[in-house]
Write a structure and sequence with these properties.
The chain is built from seven helices and seven strands, in the order ααββαβαβαββαβα. By secondary structure, it is an alpha/beta fold. α2 crosses α3.
């Protein structure tokens, strides 16, 4: 994973001490147990949702996403984080459009609203994560120009049936201390005919580590290894917060093209992002 903004390296951390190693062992065991139990529960509940949707002739997404929210609700404390929310997540179909600092963004958004995710195509092949992503309905985006039309059609179909998605238009993750320019490529679908009822809600995600940890501690970026970052969060994170600010949904009628819509979403997200110290 490349950060794509300045090539800086994350802050170096000291070796884990005995207390951190013990915390790592306990949290890792708890996280693995919760994931195994809730994923085993999710699969049949997701199947019931799909069966009911076929019988009703419309989307039914009550049981599966509810299980994902339960998982995220227990996962954040396991990661040493407290969720703070400002504003209300929309209930209508559409997209939550957020800045992207870490894989933890996904956990926080699932806890708040349980949207389906739009992710880069290579995540599909990641061990474990790819399997879970496919099971919970993640849409994997291949950014090759030849795939753009097919993927826009797939996004359109999901939005038209009333789904809610989470989209990270920066196109990569940062260190959590800045917001990168939003790419407008995926915003065009929101302005397509037939999606007038769809909403686009900007969301600002901001992390605050406890004193003693680097300010970029929760950021996952550059060439950072996922397993190492997960280990450090499980072992060292205590007393941290992740704040999700849900801004008012953007009126799509006021934006003539995807670029102006992307700029409006970026401005809203930046408006609640804490300034650098």
């Amino acid at each position: 994973m490349r950060a794509g903004w300045n090539g800086a390296e994350p802050a170096a951390l000291p070796p884990l001490d005995l207390r951190e190693r013990l915390r790592l062992a306990l949290r890792a065991a708890a996280a693995a147990f919760a994931l195994a139990v809730l994923f085993a529960l999710f699969l049949p509940l997701r199947g019931i949702d799909l069966l009911l949707a076929r019988l009703a002739g419309r989307p039914v997404t009550a049981l599966g996403p509810g299980t994902v929210r339960v998982w995220a609700a227990q996962a954040l404390p396991t990661l040493g984080l407290r969720l703070v929310m400002a504003g209300e997540p929309m209930r209508a179909g559409g997209a939550f459009v957020a800045n992207h600092s870490s894989w933890i963004d996904i956990v926080a958004l699932q806890r708040a609203a349980a949207p389906f995710l739009v992710s880069k195509a290579e995540v599909r092949a990641w061990p474990g994560i790819g399997l879970i992503g496919r099971a919970i309905g993640t849409m994997f985006i291949d950014r090759r120009p030849a795939e753009a039309r097919r993927q826009e059609a797939a996004l359109y179909a999901r939005l038209a049936r009333g789904d809610r998605m989470a989209l990270f238009p920066e196109g990569t993750s940062s260190d959590g201390r800045r917001i990168l320019p939003f790419k407008s490529s995926l915003f065009g679908v929101f302005l397509a005919p037939g999606l007038e009822a769809v909403a686009v809600q900007p969301v600002t995600i901001a992390y605050r580590p406890r004193p003693g940890l680097p300010p970029d501690f929760y950021g996952w970026w550059g060439e950072m290894d996922f397993a190492t970052h997960l280990r450090d969060v499980l072992a060292r994170s205590t007393g941290g917060t992740v704040t999700l600010t849900f801004h008012p949904p953007l009126p799509l009628a006021g934006h003539p093209d995807r670029k102006t819509l992307a700029r409006a979403a970026e401005a809203a997200v930046r408006s609640a992002f804490p300034p650098p110290p």
